[in-house]
Amino acid sequence: MALIEVEHLFFRYSRSNHWILEDINLQISSGEFVLLLGTTGSGKTTLCRTFNGLIPHFHRGVYQGVVRVAGFEVDKTETPKLAKYIGYVFQNPENMLFSLNVEREIAFSLENLAYPKDTIIQRVDEVLSLLNIEHLRHKAPYELSGGEQQLVAIASVLALKPKIIIFDEPTANLDPLTADYVLRLIKRLNTVFGITIILVEHRLELVMPLASRVIVIDNGKIVMDGPPDEIINNQLFYAIGINVPKIASLFNILNKRYKLGLKPTLNIYSAANELEGVFNDRD
Amino acid sequence: MIEIENLWYVYESGFTALKGVSIRISNGEYLAIMGKNGAGKTTLAKHLNGLLKPTRGYVLIDGMDTRDYSVAQLSRKVGYVFQNPDRFLFAESVEKELMFTLKNLGFSESEIPSLITRTLNDLNLSQFRNRSPFSLSGGERRRVALAAILCANPDYIVLDEPTVGQDFYEKERLAALLERLNKKDRRAVIVISHDVEFVADHIPRTITMSDGLIVSDGPTNKVLTNQLIIERSNLKLPQISELFTLLHEKNSHIPRDIVNIEQALEAFNKLTSSRKR
User: Fold this and answer.
1) Hey, is A86 helix, strand or coil?
2) Helix (H, G, I), strand (E, B), or coil: what is residue A278?
3) CB atoms < 10 A from the CB of A229, how many?
4) Rounded to a whole number, what is the distance in Å from the CA of B250 to chain A's nearest CA?
5) Strand (E) or helix (H) holding A41
């Protein structure tokens, strides 16, 4: 059974007169690392919200079709129950963090779900150590850097041991090195802990090599769905107005102009090998 | 010209954000100030229109020492566009947003309407003149915030992290606008950013900072291809630079100081055509 199943999903917000999501059909299996792409307003964030129940429980609108997470129909399931299966990390962790200190912040979601005290203490210790942020335990959220805030936000989601975590542009406000660190951490959660990842992210050059599957949404519809290597070989990828990794883009232009037949790749070393060949051939 | 000389800044908390920064920015320049969060970029930028005053050293804007002028006086020279437009916008309509700036900066009633019309036209916002800024999309609100700065015709425009959360099309539109302001209107444009790809693609001069110090200041294709600078400034090589660093190691005829696709294609043309001859 797929972990997430979406069947003929249509959604529009209460005050909107067109579908934001239009006939979405999708299955995501346990252990996948899904990168969700699309331009602003394409419906990516809206789709993510249907997975954890923010839609239709919090954001109201017209909702048709079925979304199942771990077998539960999202619109008929209470959000606290879903929270055990699916976590959500936002773009601006400051909107999410509010407790006096990091320890309390992480404990909060567990307390909310009425876990016993011993479990809470243990889980907080575990996630702090797993993410190497024990030194932040007694700090207030406002004392943290952007990257540290994002790690704390991830920790508080992780404490619930979800099977799936949605990351909605988690690195938007981070500098490149910190962004790289957070994205690699997300990859580790996927490979080492088997957590299914759904990631919305603009830094494709960093993240496309990490994903196992890329889904592209345009105008509320899924227009592409496949492994990254397949996606970068599809011309639609270059036409849709997303931030194509520069190397793929360079190869695509060289192929068009000079009919070189280069194979687009996301790996910088094979890109260099291939391009060096072209430079040498012309010697 | 902007002259920053041995600028130090210590916050009330005792944190020293700038430790002796010296920079010269000529009229009509286009440059980026880069570095990781906390490097001192925003503190530096806030000195340019007098939002912050030097603890030590000085900042001259066309010879005006920022310590001797108010923010309102300096804002006629230097426009500062905040990172988050929502913290800046407040008026009930786009028009009133611009009017507020112009009245505050002492423009006369007679010139205000034409300045507003021109700026809204320039930024493709005319159709929103009477709309509330909060009914607009994120990208549009950003343009309104920019309009509210540009309407006063500042010679220097400072933008703090303008590409954060922007998608491909929005970034391209922003790049085209900044280029026009710089090339056609001859404004100096100063972009604070950690978006290496955007800087590599569009901005000719790059200053990098770390821990309140300037690490480097030079042409973007020299700065962003220098591994030492990149590491010290907590940045990453642009992807094209990474590729050409590898290519250069394999074949020293292939240049290393390439930061964007345009330069890559140029290098490819040059190498292949010289070999045909």
Assistant:
1) strand
2) helix
3) 15
4) 7
5) none
Q: How far is CA A124 from CA A86, A102, A133, B64, in A?
A: 18, 10, 11, 55
Torsion of CA B102, B105, B108, B114, to 10 degrees: -30
Kindly report the nearest CA distance between residue A125 and chain B, in angstroms.
Answer: 28
Residue B184 touches chain A, beta carbons under 8 Å: no
Contact A178, B36 (CB under 8 A): yes
Kindly provide the ipTM of the predicted complex, given to two decimals: 0.82
Chain position carrying tokens 């917000």: A13
Which sign, positive or negative, has the C-alpha torsion B20, B26, B27, B30?
negative
pLDDT in tens, B48-103: 999 999 999 999 999 999 999 999 899 989 999 887 777 777 788 999 999 998 99
Is A145 within 8 Å of B37 when comparing Cβ atoms? yes
Residue B188's closest CA among B219, B144, B214, B155? B155
| CA separation, residue B32 to residues A137, B122, B191 (Å) | 36, 23, 5
Which pair of tokens denotes residue B184?
């056609």
The span from the CA of B31 to the CA of B189, in Å, is 6
Strand partners, B206: B32, B218
CB contact under 8 A, A268 and B243: yes
Kindly determine whether residue B37 and residue A271, on different chains, have CB atoms separated by under 8 Å.
no
